[in-house]
Design a protein that fits this description.
By secondary structure, this protein is α/β, with parallel strands linked by helices. The chain has eleven helices and six strands. Strands 1-6-5-4-2-3 form a six-stranded mixed sheet, with helices on both faces.
Length: 256
Amino acid sequence: MSQQQHLFPVDGKSRVVQIARRALRDLASCDEATAQGAGRNPSDRNSVSAVSKRIFSSALAPRSTALMETLCALKKEGHRSPQLAFDLIPIVARQLGDAWNRDEISFADVTIGCARLQHALHQLTDISENPVLSPEHRRLDCLVLLPAGAQHTLGATVITKQLRHAGIRIDQDLAATPNTLSTLAKTQVFDVIFISASLSETSDTLRRLVDASRLQWADSKIILGGTFEAYGPRAIATTKADYVTQDWQEALDFCI
């Protein structure tokens, strides 16, 4: 989940369609718009577009150390670790997927590149806790879920790190099933449950996870995020999640 999309409730008809279409338009244009940030020319070496290209290339470089070397160089140039971890790494992950869809790189390239990005995310250890939310937000207990068998742990890892960085109490289950949730519910209660869902998931898989979550934590708000949103309102509605968004801060606003 990044901070580019709008939150909307899953129920409803025309309003959902309207907002979903707007969100998908935003998703298609967000990289271009972000690259122009603050009037910056996208050809500028320090623009998001230029920096993401450097990270993209190093993630696929023959040397496994190339990515961390690039990130260290970017930090010396003035790029802060939170920006690299929470903004640029997710952008590059999307770019890897897009390049694979265009047959420009192999699935092995995507797998290796995303694994390196996730390793780099963990290596950015100088991201100190920086509570930026209200006391009401920080009182929330959150859980990040990834369906068992999912291959896209990077997105769930990013949102978990973002929430911790903001001072939110957070746990995660990266191979979630009804059984793992039942075990977790014996010791913990959560106010908000984030489900990271990619295009590889099905509505049935996500609905079972939503049902299992609601069975264990009846009062929790269930937020769906990730590229699954591209399937549109009808598929989203069948998951029975409470809200769909790519903006975790906006999601928390709806949970207090």
